[in-house]
Amino acid sequence: MPAKSRLKPNYYLAKTDPDTYSIDQLERDVETVWDGVRNPTALRSIRAMKAGDRAFIYHSMGLSAVVGIADITSDSRPDPKDPKLAVVDLRFVRRIDPPITLRAIKESGLFNDWALVRQSRLSTMPAPEEFVEWMRQQTKDKQL
Questions:
Q1: Percent of the chain scored above 90 by pLDDT?
Q2: CA gap 43, 76 in Å, rounded
Q3: Is 20 helix (H, G, I), strand (E, B) or coil?
Q4: Which among 32, 104, 101, 93 has a CA at the least distance from the CA of 62?
Q5: How many angstroms separate the CA atoms of 70 and 95, rounded?
Q6: In sequence order, what are the residues at sequence separation of 6 or more whose Cβ sits closer than 8 angstroms to the Cβ of residue 49?
Q7: Residue 84 gets which letter from DSSP?
Q8: What are phi and psi of 96, to 5 degrees?
Q9: Rounded to an integer, what distance in angstroms lies between the CA atom of residue 128 and that of residue 43?
Q10: 36 has pLDDT over 60
């Protein structure tokens, strides 16, 4: 089924070290190629991404937190620099202010089985629907 005809997008969490590529940079760039993912499990998530899906942008250093939302604007494709890897295009949507910290996510007790809590080094992962709904409640953003 083409991405445009799906009723609801899939959501992912994409981690970045803000010293390498921050939400500030994504906001300035507006759109970017999300690359550099090497972990096989994280690559499976990248390869599953489709145009029309969404990503929570997560800063993994400093204040570990979900800091923004991006639209995934392309289907996954091989990385031109290394065809064993995969990339997608992301477009800045908005910041999450205040950011939702990893501490708050853990303290909720709702996501103990999610890779963000269990495998803290995994850079890209699907976000469960329960997390998306929780984020809507936390941010009071029904359009998330």
A1: 84
A2: 10
A3: coil
A4: 101
A5: 9
A6: 10, 12, 55, 72, 75, 76, 88
A7: E
A8: -105, 115
A9: 17
A10: yes
Phi, psi of 105 (to 5 degrees): -65, -45
Using CA atoms, how far apart are residues 73 and 85, in angstroms rounded to an integer? 18
Q: Is 20 within 8 Å of 106 (Cβ atoms)?
A: no
β-bridge partners, 1: none
Residue 53 contacts residue 6 (beta carbons within 8 Å): no
- CA 133 from chain centre, in angstroms, equals 15
The DSSP bridge partners found for residue 56 are: 13, 69
17-31 residue pLDDT tens: 999 999 999 999 999
Distance in angstroms between the alpha carbons of the first and the last residue of the chain: 23
Q: Is the pLDDT of residue 2 over 60?
A: no
Q: What span, in angstroms and rounded, lies between the C-alpha atoms of 136 and 98?
A: 13
Mean pLDDT across the chain: 92
% residues pLDDT > 70 (the chain): 96
Whether the per-residue pLDDT at 144 is higher than 90: the answer is no
Residue spans of alpha helices (H) in the chain = 23-29, 40-48, 102-108, 115-118, 129-139
